[in-house]
Amino acid sequence: MKTDLDDTLYPSSTGIDKSIKKNIQLFLIHKCGFSESQALTLRVELFKTYGSTLAGLRALGHDITAEEYHSFVHGRLPYDVIKPDPQLRNLLRSINQRKIIFTNSDRIHALTVLDRLGIKDCFEQIICFETMNPNLPNATRPDQFPVLLKPSPDAFKIALHAANVDPRRTLFLDDSIRNVAAGKEMGLHTVLVGKTVKSEGADYAVECVNSVPQVVPEIWANQMDGDDGTMRRTKSELEAVLATAAVGA
Ligand SMILES: [Mg+2]
């Protein structure tokens, strides 16, 4: 199982996403000198075109390091709104398959959120911004290495390689429609989180990550199979037994 983190393992109703967007706009105003109205438009446009504001700024030649961007955007988030989720912890602990975080966020943010949720020890690996962009600190020009993030196919390739997983035997969870579509293109089994209706490339949709057992019971099928064989896997689609359960962040 490979899973996204933000707005996937905790709901967008926490308001963290809004705070991140606000901080990005403040970064554009205070660190890059854009006006307030330019900042809003630019954040949306850079996200659409380059995958993230940081990726867009560097591609356009702004010499901004990932560290200064992340410490500004994530460094003063109201993390106390993220509460421990014992139900999610029990759910994750009941999954025998490997569990990996796959997030565009930086490692410090990922660790902070996982710690707040009380699920840090449930994951064997965190694939994050630094994993996808190992050469960035060595760049001599901001546009030397393009910032790689989901939904770029190259970001998925790096993640699959880093985790050493077979996409056909991996469940991928994410709240982003475009990440889910990209994950499907890579051959992953996909769960769109936070929505009730499936988007393009989504095999399943759940409003809350805690509903995954109702929607994808196959994850637990092999461990629930009794000696009498009464429990049967229903979907060959899930390649019978998944090796990895990825929860997107
Ligand atoms: Mg997300």
TrEMBL record:
Entries under InterPro entries matching the protein: HAD-like_sf, HAD-SF_hydro_IA, HAD_sf, Pyr-5-nucltdase
Annotated protein name in UniProt: Uncharacterized protein
PANTHER family (alphabetical): HALOACID DEHALOGENASE-LIKE HYDROLASE, OS03G0701200 PROTEIN
Organism: Flemingia macrophylla
Pfam families membership: Hydrolase
Highest taxon above the source species: Eukaryota
